[in-house]
Amino acid sequence: MPPVLIEPIRILGHNPSEVELSLLREDLIPSPVSGNKFRKLRYNYQHFRSEGFRSMVSFGGAHSNHIDSLACLGKITDIPTVGIIRGEELASKPLNPTLAKAKESGMKLYFVSRTAYRQKEASDEIRKILLQYPGHFLIPEGGTNQLAVKGCEEILGIHTREFTHICCATGTGGTLAGLIKSSANDQQVIGFSALKGTFQTEEIVKYTDKVNFEITDQACLGGYAKMDRSLIVFMNQLKEQTNIGLDPIYTGKMMMGLMGRIRDGHFPKNSRILAVHTGGLQGIPAMNQILIKKQLPLIR
């Protein structure tokens, strides 16, 4: 198992409930595929090998950590990988750093319409792509399936039992589902949605009947990959004080939302909070390209 590193974090600003905050550094897993993607892909890779599949196929957006990690896994294990990417308009544009890296790692990229992407395998467009890869192993968008949740259950253990609250960014809900399943019944798990809405609950109940969790979109800034000056300033301030980098899609929003809750006295007095750093720093170069266009500060 990967080594465990938990770092205490000094809370920025008012702390009326005198809570303690620590960060579980999943981003430092010593593997080319790190963070929650290491957890999500671990058992999927074992299943791929044991069942004799010939290629891995999955879905993602232009800045997808999952696509980046799957391409990396394919490169280091010599497995053919295929990425079905949301947005046919991207096919005629220069690849951003995330997609360029995936392509350099050997992943075959297909850009499909947003309608086809929503329909997934029900779309004729996507079915035609899949027919080109007999014996493929299809992994859902974001990597979330039963095998991924099993891997994410291993994030928590004896080393996290002392904490009263577990906090994590959530996209498709797979990592959060694993945390909920392996949390103690007296721990509260909080998911900070990277997207508008808390629809991840519908996914989570497929994997666990535990109810010691909540999901909030209070820090999503209006939707997936939405950024503003306050987020970037917060991330850079935290980086300056702790030397810990965050990404603006997931962990940056989680930590900003969490700090806000602490300042507002949301947590009971003397709570011990553990936030999970799920990685995703590979997307920062592409995000900085967008920030330049928006004339916003760059992520340091």
TrEMBL record:
Modified residues (N6-(pyridoxal phosphate)lysine): 37
Molecular-function GO term, any one: D-cysteine desulfhydrase activity
Active site: 64
Keywords: Pyridoxal phosphate
Annotated InterPro entries: ACCD_DCysDesulf, TrpB-like_PALP, TrpB-like_PALP_sf
Domain of life: Bacteria
Presence of the UniProt keyword Cell wall biogenesis/degradation in the record: no
Cofactor: pyridoxal 5'-phosphate
Residues covered by the Tryptophan synthase beta chain-like PALP domain: 20-279
The keyword Nuclease belongs to this UniProt entry's keyword annotation: no
Family note: Belongs to the ACC deaminase/D-cysteine desulfhydrase family.
Name recorded for this polypeptide: 1-aminocyclopropane-1-carboxylate deaminase
Lineage, opening ranks: Bacteria, Pseudomonadati, Bacteroidota, Flavobacteriia, Flavobacteriales
